[in-house]
């Protein structure tokens, strides 16, 4: 007896592994090229610059390596927040901006001391009035 569903199942079973293999082999670059039209116009415009496109692909590869699901915006934002300092350092050429402590030289000026500007008034009535 002929079963119309048997052929359909066999053809689906034969095509499913081939499709799964092609999805696995597809690289980030190929996926970005394929999905470029679905990206927002702002991102699409910036990806025309090869340097930005390379950086975008590098970040996507790092996310993929860390196991981030690209369909989950929440996971991508969480990853970006966790790696924010690294990404900024890479964008600045590999240097992290170092914060320096301000050290005042000379004696501390008190409120009732004469003002250093030379007006003859007390500091609290002259230059220190707004502080």
Structure in words:
There is one protein chain. The chain has 6 helices and no strands. With 131 residues, it is an all-alpha fold. The N and C termini lie far apart (97 Å). The longest helix is centred in the N-terminal third of the chain and has 22 residues, at 4-25. The radius of gyration is 31 Å and the shape is rod-shaped. The protein has helices at residues 4-25, 28-35, 41-46, 50-65, 73-82, 84-91.
Count of alpha/pi helices: 6
Helix content: 40-55%
Overall body shape: rod-shaped
- Largest sheet geometry: none
Mean pLDDT: 76
Category by helix and strand content = mainly alpha
Give the N-to-C terminal Cα separation: 97 Å
Low-confidence stretches: 7-13, 15-22
Strand content bin: under 5%
Q: State Rg.
A: 31 Å
Please write the string of helix (H) and strand (E) elements.
Answer: HHHHHH
Q: Could you give the count of β-strands?
A: 0
